[in-house]
Amino acid sequence: MKVLASSDVSAQVSCSALVVMAFDGPQLSGSALKLDAVAGGLLQRLWDRGEFSGKLGRTGLFHDVPGVKADSVLVVGAGPEATFDEGAAFRVGGAALKRLADKARASVAIDLTDMATEVAASGIAGAMNGCVGQDTFRAEKNLKAIDELLCCATTQAAVKRGEIIGEGILLTRELVNLPPNYMYPEAFAKRAASVAVTCGLEMEVWDELRLRRENCNALLAVNAGSSRPPRLLIFRYPGKKKTQPLALVGKGVTFDSGGLSLKPTDGMTTMKCDMAGAATVLGTMQTIAQLGLETPVVGLVGLVENMVSGSCFKLGDVLRARSGKTIEILNTDAEGRLVLADVLNVALQENPQAIIDLATLTGACVVALGNDISGLMTNNAELTEKIEAAAGAVGEYVWQLPMHPHFKDQIQSQVADIKNIGDGRWGGAITAAKFLEEFVADKPWTHIDIAGPAFADKPKNYIDAGASGCMVRTLTKLVESM
Fold first, then answer.
1. Nearest CA among 439, 438, 374 for reference residue 401
2. Same domain assignment for residues 103 and 215
3. For this structure, is 322 an active site residue?
4. Are residues 190 and 139 part of one domain?
5. Residue 337: active-site member
6. Does residue 371 sit in the same domain as residue 464?
7. Which domain holds residue 8?
């Protein structure tokens, strides 16, 4: 999709469809009201008849509107004007373009009148993602491609920012949506290399031999049952500030069978998404590099397949992680934390100011918080408050879970330093985080469990089912604030 700024008044843009917004309230408002003056009061009459409303994400599509050059006009509800922000703009843009992707359209214009740069950019990013689905391999796409997005009544800076953020989210979604026979550790590394070259990121690749030399035994154990070799990737973005980098760490289990603790069929069908943490790190690194942000960032991802074979790791095994800590294996389906254990230790050698890891780590977090909220667990309240503020600014949902010391007791082993699961099913998201905490030394650290929002079984009105690209916007906002 080409994303362009348009200097024309929205009513004068020749395009397949024009998108205008109406705020929720008793009267027609927003850019829909401005267009109504050109349309001879038609939109007001349709509003009065209840043909559309200002409820967030609601749409009404009308054709051959008088005074308007566009073939069709889509009015999308923007919610209350007082609370219209980046989060609402993202959903509005997504809802509008998702509705218009019902058939092929050459060009769509969107009126961004009176929006601040960051709000307009969020609307553009949402629009770019609203018309792209998970149907990569369907001959007949559910969502049809839109060739050109024209952005009216906004700045070139907003358009560029929106396009960069939108592309970062699309990259993350694409990687997660690809099936596991297309997206495996070597394939991820190859795609990441292309991204790094395009964005000017420094990229370091650790192959299986390097991983063995570095004693990344926990990561290697998870991959031991696979015929595909593992990878660990390090991306470095220097920024402009002379400060220690922020480290972003992602879990990249490109397919998770559960190993010997085999998942049932229903639990395995979406396990291509178990590398969403790694995809989020790569999507964020692309975004911050293209935006040219000030703060230096290093991104690290551990890439493996958790498969079943005669060589896979077993219940009762004891692993010595890169840090030297020994781990008793009591569940091979608690594998993501083992991968992260070694990658977090590698992150420490980058001497970061703080570490944030992202992982589709536990079903327990979904039980606790549902499908739309990421769980935060931390050893540093200040860092987590910054993440919460960034998420709130862009309209993504996070919630902090407690990390009381007694949860650590549940991961104590009788035969090794720690074990890879807690005592029973209760508090599983927290005991998993307590496990990870063992590998971050004294660095400020926050673990983000994205198991709920990273992949959706059902579509929303502003984005298709499948990968969501969640947390790319939050992490970008966070890096800007540091």
1. 374
2. no
3. no
4. no
5. yes
6. yes
7. 2-154
